[in-house]
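Entry 12.
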Amino acid sequence: MWLMVWHPTPENWIRYTLSSLAFGCIMGATLVFRIIRAKKKLGNVSWETWCHKNYDSVS
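Predicted 3D structure (tokens):
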């Protein structure tokens, strides 16, 4: 995370705060969308099933 301070009290601090919140929400929604899409692609697999399927055959 980056924190940049260039004025003690910026003139448009409300705009900066709202734009940061909007950016965070958009990035969060993008991650949720990608996770849902990956889960649909993989199917409804539990962690235990996936682990047994991928790691029990290795040993």
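Annotation: The chain has two helices and no strands. The chain has a mean pLDDT of 83.
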